[in-house]
Design goal:
The protein is of the alpha/beta class. It has three domains: 9-52, lambda repressor-like DNA-binding domains (434 Repressor (Amino-terminal Domain)); 62-165 and 299-329, Rossmann fold (3-Layer(aba) Sandwich); 167-296 and 333-344, Rossmann fold (3-Layer(aba) Sandwich). Helix content is 43%, strand content 16%. The strands form two sheets. Strands 2-1-3-4-5-11 form a six-stranded parallel β-sheet, with helices on both faces. Helix 5 (77-92) links the parallel strand 1 (66-71) and strand 2. Helix 5 packs across helix 13 and helix 10 (228-238) packs across helix 11 (253-265). The termini are far apart.
């Protein structure tokens, strides 16, 4: 037996007295190899600790069977839910996933894009950072005809496949719902406007105010990264003086939950004195008291569409000049007790 530490198909062939080509075909379940021979080969491979060299195989057939996925933070509900769906669905097609998180750092996103390109992935799906306005670090994928999809946080004028939620409609429905519940002074807490989805949710908020002839007040709109710490600081400013706002539309659920916590701590009754709507339909919104009204973005649907689009792009291999389409995933406002009395909620 060979004394090399890393066993190869040559070692298996020597142990069984078979040709290297027979061993290779047996390991790949070639139909011309008998079941008995396949079993012998695979049993010996396990005994020797043989590991197939996926990278070498990928170099031979120009496929790594791996997809790169870049998300802002896997600790957040929406990207975590989408990542799970994408991994599970891609596995059904025989693909593995390299999941990377940018931590909302443009510098890290650039580094991750280069790393995934060097890893010879067959495609990349990206939800960009809050601050990505120049997407040129992804140009190499387009130039090399490697499928590239942006989802949720997407570029506006960059010719790639885009799959996103209906953020304008989400912003509009959330705001109009508060107005229909009697709110006339509605605070809007947004992420940085360098990110297009927050621009669209803000536009929806403004449009709902205009439709119902309510004034847009700049001092009722806050822009910052949507963390718990920032939300608490915003709450301190919002409720620093009376009259308090009678509604808050927060563009993520962490912020909505934090605003609710602040109100409870300071004796501001929700929904009687202040009604709250969040965004993403994080599972926490349903179990907190009062349960929080939120906009469901349907991460499972988005994840499935991303995988379907990726498989289509891998098979089609469109030329660089091809004009890619944009898909809009529907949203739905889920009414709960934070914005309307339980007895009046829509079923």
């Amino acid at each position: 037996m060979s004394t090399r530490s890393e066993k190869t198909i040559v070692d298996i062939a020597e142990e069984l007295g078979l040709s290297v080509s027979t061993v290779s075909r047996a390991l790949n379940d070639h139909p011309n190899i008998s079941v008995k021979t396949k079993d012998r080969v695979k049993k010996m491979a396990r005994k020797l600790g043989y590991r197939p060299n996926a990278m070498a195989a990928g170099l031979r057939n120009n496929k790594s069977k791996t997809i790169g996925l870049i998300v802002p933070r896997i600790s957040m509900f929406f990207p975590a839910a989408i990542s799970t769906i994408i991994q599970n669905k891609l596995h059904e097609f025989g693909y593995n996933v390299i999941i990377c998180q940018s931590n909302d750092s443009l510098e890290l996103e650039i580094e991750l894009a280069n790393t995934l390109y060097s890893a010879r992935v067959d495609g990349v799906a990206v939800s960009a950072t809050l601050y990505t306005t120049d997407f040129s670090h992804f140009d190499i994928f387009k130039q090399k005809n490697i499928p590239l999809i942006f989802f949720d946080r997407t570029p506006k004028d960059y010719n790639v496949k885009v799959i996103k939620g209906d953020d304008f409609l989400g912003g509009f429905l959330a705001t109009e719902h508060l107005i229909e519940q009697g709110c006339k002074d509605i605070v809007h807490i947004s992420g940085p406007l360098s990110c297009n989805l927050y621009k669209e949710r803000l536009a929806g908020y403004k449009d709902a105010l205009q439709k119902h002839k309510l004034p847009f007040k700049k001092n009722r709109v806050f822009f910052h990264e949507l963390t718990r710490e920032n939300a608490w600081q915003a709450a301190e400013r919002i409720f620093s003086q009376k009259p308090y706002p009678d509604g808050v539309f927060a563009t993520n659920d962490t912020t909505a939950i934090t605003i609710l916590e602040y109100c409870r701590k300071h004796g501001i009754q929700v929904p009687q004195q202040c009604k709250i709507v969040g965004y993403s339909n994080d599972p926490r919104t349903e179990i907190i008291t009062p349960a929080i009204t939120s906009v469901d973005q349907y991460p499972a649907t988005m994840g499935e569409r991303i995988v379907a689009a990726m498989m289509d792009l891998i098979q089609a291999r469109h030329p660089p000049a091809y004009r890619h389409s944009q898909e809009i995933v529907p949203i739905q406002l889920i009414e709960r007790e934070s914005s309307v009395d339980a007895g009046k909620r829509k079923k």
